[in-house]
Write a structure and sequence with these properties.
By secondary structure, this protein is α/β, with parallel strands linked by helices. It has eleven helices and nine strands. Helix 1 runs parallel beside helix 3 and helix 4 crosses helix 5.
């Protein structure tokens, strides 16, 4: 398989269920810090102080396939339903790789099977499940991009609420035109909603992935950091964990639905959710504590 074109701005332009080890099968809501070992060939997860870090693949398994996608879907679904988990981080295991992209051999096998049998392409497969849970769970999901992140892998990160990349000589984006393809897991739709139609057209049509710094400049990622992306993701996750789960859930719901909701309807929902939070014990306690403090500093926000 040919590599995509050189990266702009750089020096060189894998079970329908998680298979846990029996001794580590745990109920929802485990304690302060716990490492949960799924089938380590696909997905591992560690929970620390309410922050779940999901690691994809291994140093040798650097592509997404259906087994990886299904394991990730089950893990994300578990995170969504666990009240002790406040923030989710998705990271890659391979050095210099987030997860490179969806497995090309797996795509070829499906395509050849469809051609041979005349059946329709399978619905709700590939990475649709994980993407749907990332977008719909009422908790922030952060992608910590530490290396090559192309095509389906980048589509997965576009479903995350925040994308943090670390600086380095690797590629982020969509190379699909080079293989006679277009993005197939929501890339055309989500990127356009992220950076605008014109910029999305330029990036996808050209089929040239970009460097992490260029990805930040173009809005493909929120931040590119000089250190480790996972460290910065953890820093952000700890900050988010200091807020109430309800406020984060409502903010995510409102912002994510904004482009598909008529303005008047969105404003009405925002006011309703604001008032619901405002009369709650958590918000009242925080507002009273704030009001009792010295307000002399005009820059004070907490």
């Amino acid at each position: 398989m040919l590599d995509p074109p050189p990266v702009i701005g750089s020096a060189k332009h894998k079970s329908d269920a998680i298979r846990q080890e029996p001794s580590r099968r745990l109920p929802l809501g485990w304690g302060f810090r716990m490492e949960v070992l799924m089938d380590a060939e696909f997905v591992t997860m560690k929970v620390t102080d309410g922050i779940a870090t999901i690691t994809l693949g291994t140093e040798k398994r650097i592509y997404i396939d259906q087994e990886t996608s299904d394991a990730l879907f089950a893990t994300l679904t578990r995170c969504a339903g666990d009240p002790d988990i406040r923030v989710v981080i998705i990271a890659g295991a391979g050095p210099g790789q987030f997860v490179r992209h969806y497995s090309i051999p797996a795509l070829i096998r499906v395509a050849e099977s469809v051609r041979a049998t005349g059946r329709e392409w399978p619905e709700a497969r590939f990475i649709d499940g994980p993407i749907s849970v990332c977008e719909s769970m009422p908790k922030p999901v952060i992608a910590a991009i530490s290396g090559t992140c192309l095509a389906g892998a980048f589509e997965l990160t576009l479903s995350c609420d925040l994308r943090i990349a670390e600086d380095g000589d690797y590629q982020i984006g969509f190379p699909e035109p080079n293989f006679g393809l277009c993005p197939g897991a929501g890339g055309t739709q989500r990127l356009a909603r992220t950076i605008g139609t014109a910029a999305a057209l330029m990036h996808i049509l050209m089929g040239v992935p970009v460097s992490p710094r260029e990805a930040e400049r173009r809005g493909l990622v929120h931040e590119t950091v000089s250190g480790h992306a996972l460290d910065r993701a953890m820093e952000i996750a700890r900050h988010l964990s200091s807020f109430t789960p309800e406020s984060l859930a409502y903010i995510k719901r409102l912002v994510r639905s904004a482009t598909d909701t008529p303005l008047a309807q969105g404003l009405l929902l925002e006011r309703r959710l604001f008032m619901k939070l405002c009369e709650g014990d958590a918000a009242l306690s925080r507002m009273r504590a704030y009001d009792e403090q010295d307000t002399a500093s005009p820059s004070r926000v907490t």
